[in-house]
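TL;DR need structure tokens for one chain.
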Amino acid sequence: MATTKMRSLGSGCLSQITTIFLDLDNTLIPTRKADAKACNKLVDFLQEEHGMSREAALVSTSTFLRTFRRCPDNEELPLEEWRCHLWSEALPEPFKCLSSEVYRTWLQLRLRYMAPTAENVKLLESLRSNFILALITNGPSAAQWEKVNRLNLAKYFDCILVSGDLPWEKPDARIYHAACNLLSVQAHQCIMIGDKLETDIQGGKEAKLGATFWLPLTSAERAEPQVGLMPDFTIHNLSDILAVLPCGGKTCGRFPASRNRCSSIGTTGSGAMRRARVPYNRRVASLPDLDNCNSNSSDGS
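>> reply
TL;DR here they are.
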């Protein structure tokens, strides 16, 4: 479906764009849909493999999903331990003893459904020929890096910033400016693409980026955007940006053959000062074999 232009931009505005900032959840990958699909599939698993009634399975999965979305991570516990705890709380007696197995099955399903579509992979490969790419995501560090690493996303980006590693999160303009500094680009040379008006779009505007692109989750959101948070463009699919960006997805010869990738970023926050070093190629330690749902190894750091 065609891109909708929200306001008139100067003819030279987008021609200056060299850098694309992408949101992760519900923009590049279908996180919310994947969570729902994984839990729906688990209902069948609990029924067929463990004899739980459908009603009890539905209550358990919906309870887990609700509490998980409210608190996806606990800094004091490894990811596996925290998620097993949430499943133990959600499962009825006498099924609480299955929390570890259910967690591993859920994780396998979740990552399967969360994988970027073939269309989005092709888009990333095309954009890499024309633009500098950065992934800027809000969320707990271990949980977000698990997605990046498990879905093999790092290879597409010159910079990855996770708010859990930093003193700020979107919509704070400083997280965008940190990416700009790291990539040696100016804010007006960058665009932000995301699904949330109050974080991705507002933050992009406060950071004075060249343009903002909104990818709403639902048609209802698209029909009634929040007043004061109007994006420059509303798109229906991520690939719609090719119709607006310079080069239209064709190689411009914009970059030299050898291109530096960022290795780390040092940051300091105001007030309670904090310094964090964020390696680009960070990895979540001790990831389990997801093809083996009986694996007892930890998937958290």
